Amino acid sequence: MAASLLKVPMLTAIPICVTGNIIPIPFILLLIKKVFAIMKKWTPTGKFVERIEAHAMKRSGRIANAEFLGLMLFVGIPLPGTGAWTGSLIASLLDVDIKKAVVAEFIGVVIACIIMCIVSYGLLGAIIS
């Protein structure tokens, strides 16, 4: 949406947006449990981490039943609180296979990108132009 408002051409915006969403996924999947374990030991951040985990697990119901499809749809539907980063956190907490999680999240990011392009460059673009 920001790219559309900034008049960035859609074919330029798509690879930038997809890449920006994909880059953190492997790091989150591989490291978030270790980072959380360290943060839980320190009182000021322990409660914060517990709230993040509780929030992520509350949203995990859709993913737990059908890992691949659930994760893909969770990431692919562009709503607040969903997306690749939250999907990676949930996948890590649910011990989803990393290869399966990366592929599902990549497909989800592409789906979300298509939806947002239609909204931003189609509907919003028609209103703003």
Q: If helices are DSSP runs of H or I spanning 4 or more residues, what is the number of helices?
A: 8
The fraction of residues assigned to DSSP E strands is under 5%
| Number of domain modules | 1
Structural class: mainly alpha
Helix content: over 70%
In one word, what is the shape? globular
**What is the residue-averaged pLDDT?**
86
SSE ordering: HHHHHHHH
How would you characterize the largest beta sheet? none
Taking the alpha carbons of the first and last residues, their distance comes to 14 Å
Q: Give Rg in angstroms.
A: 16 Å
Low-confidence stretches: none
- Total beta-strand segments: 0
What would you note in describing this structure?
- The chain is mainly α and 129 residues long.
- The protein has one domain.
- The chain is built from 8 helices and no strands.
- The chain has helices spanning 2-5, 10-22, 24-41, 43-58, 61-65, 67-76, 84-93, 98-128.
- Helix 3 packs across helix 8 (98-128) and helix 6 (67-76) packs parallel to helix 8 (98-128).
- The mean pLDDT is 86.
